[in-house]
């Protein structure tokens, strides 16, 4: 009989989930020491599965909601770094969401279990890369092409990517086939739960710090522009929207990261909040880039577009922008 090894809930792939029927789970990951029974694991995993399903539905909903904007504002433009980031983020997230739907199928062998697990984890890790690239590019543009800020943001945002990649090497795939549950694909790992809890806290704090630097850059490097162009700001929503989006997105992601730390550390519905972080981050990327494209292409917003899309020095003198 396979043993129920202690594993880290955070390190399990967010795309890995079970069918909605709580009594027959085809794909499950064993939890931390606080959950000692199969029924407890089923209860936790079912809650997580619902959250993953909701986050996947959210990605599909946002895609169809903004598809007309994508066709108008992105497809007709030549390829550059912004377009590459947009498409990479957009379609990796769609593949991740689509892949989640495949989890309702029965995976009863270690080979099939491992294959589904690995593909799901790789797609999820790629979303971290998209977020790091987007955050660094945004800071690089708005800070007057300051490489120090951009590098700091990228490094901090990539900490979860490297952390999860390292954890991934410690996974062991198993199939539970003992009464009362059969054909149960699950994953164990060789790292202590305490170590993984600390790693999760560090990863989330790095993400929060990275987002805080982005917020600081947005507020700090546009402060002079807003003061000296009050007429332009009042006449069009470009600058105001750019600043408000940065603040609002930061608050949302900050709340999610804090909740993830608390719920994981207490082992209460672990990983449920985490299942929303990367999908929402992906939506933020798409929305931000589409908004910037919209502002850039709207004739009445030419001045605001120049302000938003240009890099700025501390004395608010615009230079060429990589985001256009």
TrEMBL record:
<keyword id="KW-0812">Transmembrane</keyword>
<feature type="region of interest" description="Disordered">
    <location>
        <begin position="1"/>
        <end position="23"/>
    </location>
</feature>
<feature type="transmembrane region" description="Helical">
    <location>
        <begin position="105"/>
        <end position="134"/>
    </location>
</feature>
<feature type="transmembrane region" description="Helical">
    <location>
        <begin position="247"/>
        <end position="266"/>
    </location>
</feature>
<feature type="compositionally biased region" description="Polar residues">
    <location>
        <begin position="12"/>
        <end position="23"/>
    </location>
</feature>
<feature type="domain" description="DUF6533">
    <location>
        <begin position="50"/>
        <end position="95"/>
    </location>
</feature>
<feature type="transmembrane region" description="Helical">
    <location>
        <begin position="77"/>
        <end position="99"/>
    </location>
</feature>
<keyword id="KW-1133">Transmembrane helix</keyword>
<dbReference type="InterPro" id="IPR045340">
    <property type="entry name" value="DUF6533"/>
</dbReference>
<feature type="transmembrane region" description="Helical">
    <location>
        <begin position="201"/>
        <end position="226"/>
    </location>
</feature>
<protein>
    <recommendedName>
        <fullName>DUF6533 domain-containing protein</fullName>
    </recommendedName>
</protein>
<dbReference type="Pfam" id="PF20151">
    <property type="entry name" value="DUF6533"/>
</dbReference>
<keyword id="KW-0472">Membrane</keyword>
